Amino acid sequence: MSLTMPPRRRADFLAGRSALHRAVRAAGLTAGAVLCDGPRPLLPDGISASISHSGGVAVAVAGPSDRFRTLGVDLELTALPLEAAHLVLRGPETELLNGDGDGDGDADTGTAARRLHVLHSAKEAAYKALSPVIGPGLRGLRDIRLEAHTDGYLARATGQPGPLVHVSARELPQGVLCWAVPRN
Q1: 175, burial (CB in 10 Å: exposed 0-12, middle 13-18, buried 19+)
Q2: Is the pLDDT of residue 144 over 90?
Q3: Could you identify which of 46, 69, 105, 180 might form a hypothetical disulfide with 167, taking C-beta atoms 3.0 to 4.6 angstroms apart as the criterion?
Q4: Residue 1: what pLDDT?
Q5: Nearest CA among 90, 87, 181, 96 for reference residue 147
Q6: Exposure pattern of 147-166 as b/e (b: 16+ CB <10 Å)?
Q7: Which pLDDT band, with edges at 50, 70 and 90, does 80 fall under?
């Protein structure tokens, strides 16, 4: 961690690392100091984990890597404006804003904005789960394809071999929490 981080960024960083240590312990695992690999935590062998923070709140998920090859979590307390949907979604995914996938545009603006908030967080969680496996070929959120599933979404990288991940989403009173795990 750089001591030159702005105070708010440093507080988020430390909250994320604290959440990670709690998640590791809750999973029955142990880890010493967690170093950095760029923006990602550099985890000890045997541990898969992911961290997210937003607005001073941090969350983390962790588990044994022999059970979870990869994990992703995202907390979004600030929604994207609906006009930014094209930056996150493409093709058939835009129909998910309507909620029924029929593309008839029947969702009101508030409902569509709420759905974009969930879809954005779902893609962030999927990106965090897929990028360590796929590597630099996964350039951003638009490289991930979401499909509605009975209890969340299925996500995969477009045009890349890699795992299929299941993304669960929960709307919170002031945001969205999503987590992604490989599908068996």
Answers
A1: middle
A2: yes
A3: 180
A4: 47
A5: 96
A6: eeeeebbbbbbeeeebbebb
A7: very high
Question: Which residues touch 139 (CB under 8 Å, ≥6 apart)?
Answer: none
Query: Is residue 104 pLDDT above 50, yes or no?
Result: no
- Would you call 12 exposed, middle or buried from its count of C-beta atoms within 10 A (0-12, 13-18, 19+)? buried
* Distant-in-sequence, close-in-space partners of 99: CB < 8 Å, separation ≥ 6: 107, 111, 115
Question: With the CA atoms of 161, 156, 21 and 35 taken in that order, what torsion angle do they form, in degrees rounded to the nearest 10?
Answer: 40
Instruction: Tokens for 143, please give them.
Output: 């490289």
CA dihedral 110, 112, 116, 119 (to 10 degrees): 130
Domains annotated for the chain, with CATH where assigned, are 1-68 (no CATH), 74-184 (3.90.470)
Q: Which residues, in sequence order, are CB contacts of 76 under 8 Å at separation 6+?
A: 54, 117, 120, 121, 124, 175, 176, 178
CA distance 52 to 44: 19
Hey, which of 89-98, 141-150, 154-163 has the most confident mean pLDDT? Answer: 141-150
Taking the CB of residue 13, how many other CB atoms lie within 10 A of it?
A: 18
